[in-house]
């Protein structure tokens, strides 16, 4: 059994999707970050970096419980645990990890900052909005150009697609028009139809 600690964020959603894709048994625990529940001592024992998502796998390596945080690490761990969505072929595997790192180092931080300055900043800062909007559009172009001749980010559907999808799914909040990125739009439509994706997104739908 896996205890899954999450909230309604893209990083939480990607782990929810992966858990659904993997078929592993899990129990969800909602950590309301709007109420700063991520700073509670019991959660800090699981993730001292006070962020969601996090998991506790009670049947971890060598049958010992494993606490794990950082969504990219969790995706890799779950893929290796189940043998799903991370190819054993060396070329495909490293390309999957490459695009996962692209999400972790670029998509997440840059679009996260854009969300902040568009919706949460105490005052509007035009420079910040322009800076992160331009960077968001650049990242969308990178993805769109890559998908021109590829159905997924790394040959087959993988943890790279799972990592990127929840962020692209919020394109309207980023004030990005997917019509400007037709290849990415077609990819988004394909991923959105997957049953595990629908279930994973629905997990926090009513929070």
Instruction: Give the termini separation.
Output: 24 Å
Oligomer: single chain
Q: Which CATH class of the largest domain applies here?
A: Mainly Alpha
The number of helical segments is: 8
Number of strands: 4
Reading the helices and strands in chain order gives EHEHEEHHHHHH
Structural class: alpha+beta
The fold-level CATH name of the largest domain is: Glutathione S-transferase Yfyf (Class Pi), Chain A, domain 2
User: Major sheet: size, sense and barrel closure?
Assistant: 4 strands, mixed
Q: Globular, elongated, flat, extended or rod-shaped: what is the shape?
A: globular
Radius of gyration: 17 Å
Strand order of the largest sheet: 2-1-3-4
Spans of 5+ residues with little confidence (pLDDT < 50)? none
Helix content: 40-55%
Strand content range: 5-15%
Total of domains: 2
CATH architecture descriptor name of the largest domain: Up-down Bundle
The overall average pLDDT, rounded, is 97
Structural notes for this entry:
The protein has helices at residues 10-22, 41-44, 71-82, 90-120, 126-146, 159-168, 182-192, 195-202, and strands at residues 2-6, 26-30, 54-57, 66-69. It is an alpha+beta fold and 207 residues long. The protein has two domains: 2-85 and 198-206, Glutaredoxin (3-Layer(aba) Sandwich), CATH 3.40.30.10; 90-194, Glutathione S-transferase Yfyf (Class Pi), Chain A, domain 2. A four-stranded mixed sheet has the order 2-1-3-4, covered by helices on one side. The longest helix is centred in the middle third of the chain and has 31 residues, at 90-120. Belongs to the GST superfamily. Residues 89-207 form the GST C-terminal domain. It holds the Pfam family GST_C. It comes from Aquicella siphonis.
């Amino acid at each position: 059994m896996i205890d899954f600690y999450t909230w309604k964020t893209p990083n939480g959603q990607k782990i929810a999707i992966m858990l659904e894709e993997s078929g592993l048994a899990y129990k969800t625990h909602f950590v309301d970050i709007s109420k700063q529940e991520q700073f509670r001592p019991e959660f800090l024992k699981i993730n001292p970096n006070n962020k969601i998502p996090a998991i506790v796998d009670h049947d971890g390596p060598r049958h010992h419980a494993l606490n794990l945080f950082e969504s990219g690490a969790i995706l890799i761990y779950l893929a290796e645990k189940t043998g799903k969505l991370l190819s054993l072929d060396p070329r495909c595997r490293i390309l999957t990890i490459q695009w996962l790192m692209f999400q972790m180092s670029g998509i997440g931080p840059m679009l996260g900052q854009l969300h902040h300055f568009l919706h949460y900043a105490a005052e509007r800062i035009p420079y910040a909005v322009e800076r992160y909007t331009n960077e968001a559009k650049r990242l969308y172009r990178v993805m769109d150009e890559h998908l021109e001749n590829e159905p997924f980010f790394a040959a087959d559907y993988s943890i790279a697609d799972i990592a990127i999808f929840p962020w692209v799914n919020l394109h309207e909040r980023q004030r990005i028009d997917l019509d400007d990125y037709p290849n990415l739009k077609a990819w988004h439509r394909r991923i959105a139809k997957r049953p595990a994706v629908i279930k994973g997104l629905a997990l926090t739908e009513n929070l």
